[in-house]
Amino acid sequence: MKYKNNEFFIDGVKLEKLAKKYSTPLYCYSYNKIKENIKYFKKTFKTINPLICFSVKSNSNKVLLREIGKLGLGADVVSIGELMKAISSGIKPKNIVFSGVGKTPDELKYAINKKILLINAESKSEILEIERISKIYNKKVNIGLRLNPNTDAKTLSQISTGKKENKFGISEKSILELIEYIKKCKNLKLRCLSVHIGSQILDHRPYEKTLNVLERVLRKSKFNFEYIDLGGGMGINYSDNKKKLNLRKYCISIRKFLKKNKSKIIFEPGRSIIGNAGILVSKITYIKKGNKKNFIILDAAMNDLIRPALYNAKHRIIPIKKRNKKTNKIYEFVGPICESTDKFSTIKKFQELSQKELIIICDVGAYGMSLSSNYNVRAKPAELLVKNSKIQVITKRQSLKDLI
Ligand SMILES: *Cc1c(COP(=O)(O)O)cnc(C)c1O
After folding, report:
1. 31-271: which CATH architecture?
2. 82: Cβ below 6 Å to ligand 1?
């Protein structure tokens, strides 16, 4: 994804052409970028040979799931819907792990009968429910226990999951008791200790702290886990500053950990696989001149991309056609929805813009379309995949007829 002669191209296709043909707002993904991200992830962790389960909640498009599965990844799901989508996209149940604090009996039944790799349980009540169901079906169920390591991921508070005040996982003390309990259940097979401390993590030290807690639990429990599931959360670079998670250092710490504890590592990355592989193209409906700033009113809104409104997340905005003429005005890029948080970014020194022009919101591959809604009775956008210059509509634009 780059400019050629000041025009934006995605895998060799001129983006403006796509926007004109398929209309806006429009999500576009680069197959090559996804492939590159997966290759990089595998290469970084090659020495520990992990099972990589793509976090389906970050992007649950079936065509993308199929491609990601073909590139060798399993899936991490958090609902029966995601589990069904992953399976129907060709991802094998033996490469699927199921996380979440509130799996219902129906969800558990389905997962148990599909014989997925792991149900990562998050409470004693859930273990009791799994045990009850496993007896009804006379099935042996593979269990992971999700530890709450009480470590601060140093990320946005809204996407932090590993502190004791968060609803996720089981405390160190309760996990030791649960391990003893599960050992006595003949239908449950305890195979994994799992963690996931949060999302968009850019500092490797919280991961190191988590490994220390895992090590302590393993030492105290004296239980041999076949798998250690380290979750996802690897952050990506949303801005021009070059702050980057040091995956290499993380890998070194894991190798040190594995010297004492011989287990297979599982990862559950979402954002780091798909985040920078997607963009959202939007058309300027109006430009409204204000006192101190000009509002660039887009046809995309918080229903298409809610991250800025929900987490105060920052996404770069760039023009589809680069021009040299910069303006001194402050531009505030907003959507048309009747909420003051329907606002993407405020930018100084952008190039001069005009009505009907197209702009690009960057790095929206993760938690973009998957968090979209129909708020304000707005139809959801279309999604395109560009693969080696071939264009595939992977989600049709929703029609108003569907909604009304
Ligand atoms: C959301 C989630 C992930 C993926 O997080 P990313 O930040 O997208 O890598 C992994 N595991 C669990 C349990 C999750 O809830």
Report:
1. Alpha-Beta Barrel (3.20)
2. no
- Does 31-271 match 2-29+275-403 at the fold level? no
Per-residue pLDDT tens over the stretch 93-138: 999 999 999 999 999 999 999 999 999 999 999 999 999 999 999 9
Distance CA 230, CA 274 (A): 19
- In the chain, domain spans: 2-29+275-403, 31-271
Strand intervals (E) in 13-140: 13-14, 26-30, 51-55, 74-77, 96-98, 118-121
pTM summary value: 0.96
Q: Between the CA of residue 219 and those of 94, 183, 216, 355, what are the distances in Å?
A: 28, 17, 5, 64
Per-residue pLDDT, 379: 97
Pocket residue to mutate for ligand 1, from 45, 199, 203, most atoms within 8 A of Cβ: 199
DSSP 332-380: EEE-SSSSTT-EEEEEESPBP--TT-EEEE-S-SSSSGGG---GGGPPP
Ligand 1 atom closest to residue 199's alpha carbon, by position in its atom list: 7
Q: Which atom of ligand 1 is nearest to the CA of 232?
A: 9
Which CATH class name applies to 2-29+275-403? Answer: mainly beta
Among the atoms of ligand 1, which is closest to the Cα of residue 99?
13
Q: In terms of DSSP bridges, do strands 390-395 and 7-10 run parallel, antiparallel, or are they unpaired?
A: unpaired
Which one is catalytic: 28, 185, 338, 362? 338
Q: 231 in the Ramachandran plot: left (φ > 0), alpha (ψ -120 to 50) or beta? A: left
Cβ 60 under 6 angstroms from ligand 1: no
Q: Are 169 and 158 in contact (CB under 8 A)?
A: no
Q: Is 251 a catalytic residue?
A: no
CA 62 – CA 85 distance, rounded (Å): 7
* CB 196 near ligand 1, within 6 Å: yes
